[in-house]
Design brief:
With about 450 residues, the protein is α/β, with parallel strands linked by helices. It is built from 21 helices and 16 strands.
Length: about 450
């Protein structure tokens, strides 16, 4: 049960909302103006406030500002019959959780309430949220940016439209692609992923379109490509910006005509796939440089979805951290620990160049290496940010007997972390560390680096 405060000068609106929420079993109070609302909050803080924008005297935006000033974590949903984009932006800037327009839709109200209660941390509502929202898409967060992504996913998912997902490494582009598949009519058919950057350019065509026996050295049998494997389902072209121009031309033909031809064959095979693509590159710049086909870009970019970097949605970090703690405890047997408020604030202040993937690795490291019953700010400082110097030297490195041994251990740790940050995409990792790909392969072999399951 949640404690809800409704603030609206229109008696009919306030009474209607009270009836809806009380029917769901919540405790509801109603205020007719801003000063009464502030008094009620001071007397008994609610879990969530539904606040009208236009009221005589003190308007809703001023009430919002005062509520958030007194409690930065206050959950406030703005409601208005005179909604404009400017008002919604101003309300969001002042810290509103959401902005709803009158006439209010009951289903939308209840969904907003459930999502907001998860942020508040009410145990029963968190359980419902985990099954209804987080587990539904595996995309965790309640920030304005991530809610925009989810809204677009839910709109385009049931359609057959092609989607181009853009975002930095580690932001969760694959999760968005899988969410689109689960919401589509193809959900019971295959979801086939191709990492275009991880496949050598000379093999990408065979990987996508298949080959026949004897078409090239090593082709010892006929093999269906990813397009055929995804027939009836969804084909996810990850890092599509790394695909060769020759492969791009064949992908364009497959999209236009719905047919593919295996390498070494002249027989066209009809395929029915929905293509979802993703990239961390500026494809418009790639087009200008001649390394990406403009016609293919427009074929893929029917509906664009931009996944924000973690540094632009820091308010999601506490929810993500708790999500990873739960997953690591359940799946990997890691001992859960409490995380102090100061430690969480320190995590929220970091830049996270590796985004959500880096955060998950960090949570795992903190749970394993922290020595106390709870994770404190000092643990984050030492194990993550590395103190004032920004470098964290583990005991294993400092125990090295010679300088050369120390350098090798440091290089191994550095390359391992960079590979993790780029999801073991060797090409991207080599580019990021300014190292020839062949050299990186040699070092991976030399240090016995392997991807964790």
């Amino acid at each position: 049960m949640a404690r809800i405060l409704i603030v609206d000068d229109e008696e009919s609106i306030g009474d209607a909302l009270q009836q809806v929420f009380e029917y769901e079993g919540h405790e509801v109070r109603v205020a007719r103006n801003g000063p009464d609302a502030l008094s009620m909050v001071e007397e008994s803080p609610p879990d969530i406030v539904f606040l009208d924008v236009k009221m005589p005297g003190m308007d809703g935006l001023e009430v919002l500002e005062r509520l958030r000033g007194a409690d930065p974590n206050a959950l406030v949903v703005m409601i208005s019959g005179h909604g404009t984009i400017d008002t919604a932006v101003e309300a969001t800037r002042k810290g509103a959780y959401d902005f709803l327009e009158k006439p209010l839709d009951t289903d939308r109200l209840l969904v907003t309430l459930r999502n907001a209660l998860a942020v508040k941390g009410l145990s029963a509502s968190v359980e419902r949220l985990l099954t209804e929202v987080q587990s539904r898409h595996e995309i965790v967060g309640s920030s304005f940016q991530i809610r925009q992504v989810l809204e677009r996913v839910e709109k385009v998912g049931p359609t057959e439209a092609r989607v181009l997902i853009r975002g930095e490494n580690g932001t969760g582009k694959e999760l968005v692609a899988r969410a689109l598949h689960r919401l589509s009519s193809r959900r019971d058919e295959p979801f086939v992923e191709v990492n275009c950057a991880a496949i050598p350019s000379e093999l990408i065509e065979s990987e996508l379109f298949g080959h026949i026996k004897g078409s090239f050295t090593g082709a010892v049998a006929d093999r269906a490509g990813k397009f055929e494997q995804a027939h009836g389902g969804t084909l996810f072209l990850d890092e599509v910006g790394d695909m060769s121009l020759a492969a791009q031309a064949k992908v364009l033909r497959a999209l236009e005509q719905g047919v593919v031809t295996r390498v070494g064959s002249s027989k066209a095979v009809r395929v029915d796939v929905r293509v979802v693509a993703a990239t961390n590159k500026d494809l418009e710049a790639e087009i200008r440089e001649g390394s990406f086909r403009e016609d293919l870009f427009y074929r893929l970019n029917v509906v664009p979805i931009e996944v924000p970097p973690l540094r632009e949605r820091r308010e999601d970090i506490p929810m993500l951290v708790q999500h990873f703690v739960t997953l690591l405890q359940r799946n990997d047997g890691v001992t859960p620990r409490k995380i102090s408020r100061e430690a969480m604030e320190r995590l929220q202040a970091l830049e996270w160049p590796g985004n959500v993937r880096e955060l998950r690795n960090t949570v795992e490291r903190l749970l394993i290496l922290s020595s106390g019953d709870s994770i404190e700010a000092e643990d984050v400082e030492f194990l993550v940010s590395g103190g004032a110097g920004g470098v964290c030297l583990g005991a294993e490195m400092l125990d090295a007997e010679t300088f050369n041994e120390f350098k090798e251990r440091a290089e191994r740790a550095y390359l391992l972390q960079k590979l993790r940050d780029h999801d073991w995409n060797v090409s991207e990792t080599a580019r990021s560390v300014d190292m020839p790909r062949s050299n990186l392969y040699k070092k991976i072999e030399r240090y016995g680096l392997v991807r964790e399951e």
